[in-house]
């Protein structure tokens, strides 16, 4: 019997790790990886809840989430390529054209 | 004759003034000048025509109701009575001659339209003062002469000192106007009306203390316009204006407006012995002060200015001694001979090549047109009080009134009057000798004196010399015409035994002779001016300007600086600027958030998430009670 | 047994993720993450979601992370030197605050009696999940498939080499 709270705690910790990856890392790619980690943490919550309440809806949502994530990653990485072609660097701070 | 035609007397100069103001520069010069002269001359002719209306109790005419609100009913009313008529005649007559003189004097000046419109406007305002039957209308004229005086003194405003002289005149007389304003309001509060004749009729029903205070307020108001102590500092500097202005304003009309005001309110003022003594005291002190200053002056017009101050002091003394007839007599003769002296001084300055300093003139009797010397001498002997001139009789009348006054304090004033007469004779002949006698000392290039500048002098000189017949005292065989003319308005009848009168006359003769002798002994052959401390003290008018500066101007400037720098700038501007700076500082701090960088916005997300989490945690703890 | 496995897998997941986020070399980071995702997939299986576990491996670890690797290789991203700037010390206050906050949250969650209830054995067969997905969530599936189409088109537009100017998103 896995206590539900423990599963949630794991998910929470994973989410915090993903968040810190987003905040600390400079490169856009690493930021995107952090986002992936956070999404996975959300998936874990959904699956645990689905098991806890013995309903399939959580798993269905996880599947949809994965699909959306795939779409998002595709576009995001295309943009990464575009940015690389503009400035030959992927450091996020370099792209401050919206300053002011 | 319709009495409302009386209004043409002041309105004719006003009309010409407005025309000159609006169209003067577009009209040909001769036309504008003729219009100006005609305006004043027309008033003179009208005054003569309407002379009959002034006899008896006079004529009152109302043009329109100016203000009417509650109990206040101010109408534009004229009172052409026995007091106003001779004054009007003098003002318009002298003004006409001076306008003619001015045409010649200003013939090289470009701003003729402004000059003549201001001059006509001035005559209108002065006539308003003389003819007004309503205190508010009088005040209108009072302010009007102040304004025109400012404009005319500072006529050549492009030179900074002239503009400053005009401002000084305006501000100092304004102080007097404040007192007159207070008296005006107080009179309305006490009597419920502003009509002068009604106020005079009700004068005896006002409480004595109030009458005394009102008398002193009116005195202070008169001091401003008449350049008496303590509001006299402007008159000497007012000589910066053109000579016709000095002749008109500072000899005949504006400086006598104060005397006229006191004569108009004589039924009110004479009820308070304290006020009368105050008037006499002010007049006496001013007469002596001005005479001492005149002795040391170097510029010809400044000598005449101080002399005017001194003679107006005599007129105040006459009012204080109770004789309106005596005061008006001296006013009229003084107008004649002082105007002559000023206009002749203008000719002298022209002759000496625009030189003002009498120590640099000399020998002008031979250089200039010969009649100039005689005309000037005529005015001078009237001023000094040579027996049988008009000035002699008027001055003697005043001294007699002072001598015979019931109150013994007036003997002291009489003594001051006598001493002043001695000084007057001295400085007058000093002036004559330094300007006309001896060898020419100046280096200026003489300008020719136009005919228009010489002709108007003769009638005035003659009037000054023979003006004594206006009010010849009985003991020399005269009929005291002026005194009888004024009848009820004339104040106290001066009664003195013939011995006293002859004694005073002989005293006067001795004084004039002594003054002339002293001046002859000292100045017949030229001696350079004294440079001592006393001389400098008198030259600067007993350091009056300095005193006013220290007493009033500097504290006021200090207070103004405190208000401006201390309060306005540091407090208000500082607080508002400080607020603006603080807000813009906050803005600058906030701007640092808009870096355009992804990391900044992500950290914003994180902070928001943290706050939300914290809030939910608190809610959880509070709600769940864990 | 399952419980212990779950905890072990959980810690493996967290350790792998921690390694991932602290690597300099992006390729190393991705590989560590893939390992973490494997652990996560097994956790899904233990929580009674075999289909989701399979898809986690196939889609996430197999497609998305491989895509990341593609990009890294294509752009030739070198291992990063420490870029100039404040570095991780800047995050210290925020980190401490959030760590303590997280600790509180976790403690609360763990102590909550509702949270203490255990997840009983539950296993969802793929058929059952498919039935739910295509009956109750049919609309969502259709919309997500549209989204995939849009993403494809968008990725192509963004990535095409020739026009060097601005490209709309």
Class per helix and strand makeup of chain C = mainly alpha
- CATH class wording of the largest domain in chain C: Mainly Alpha
Give me the CATH fold name of the largest domain in chain C.
Four Helix Bundle (Hemerythrin (Met), subunit A)
**Helicity range of chain C:** over 70%
Largest sheet of chain C, in brief, is:
none
Q: From the structure provided, what is the oligomeric state, counting identical versus distinct chains?
A: heterotrimer
The biggest beta sheet of chain B is recorded as: 2 strands, antiparallel
Catalogue the unreliable spans of chain C: none
Strand order of the largest sheet of chain B: 1-2
* Mean pLDDT level of chain B: 87
Shape of chain C: globular
- Beta-strand fraction estimate of chain C: under 5%
Low-confidence runs of at least 5 consecutive residues of chain B? none
Report, as a whole number of angstroms, the end-to-end distance of chain C: 50 Å
Report on the structure:
The complex is a heterotrimer of chains A (100), B (626) and C (169). Chain A is mainly α. Chain A has one domain: Helix Hairpins, CATH 1.10.287.3510. Chain A is 77% helix and 2% strand. Chain A has helices spanning 4-24, 28-52, 57-87, and one strand at residues 2-3. In chain A, α1 (4-24) packs antiparallel against α2 (28-52) and α2 packs antiparallel against α3 (57-87). Chain B is built from 26 helices and two strands. The model of chain B has no long low-confidence stretch (mean pLDDT 87). Among the domains of chain B are: 290-539, no CATH class; 543-592; 593-626. Chain C folds into two domains: 1-78, Four Helix Bundle (Hemerythrin (Met), subunit A) (Up-down Bundle); 126-169, no CATH class.
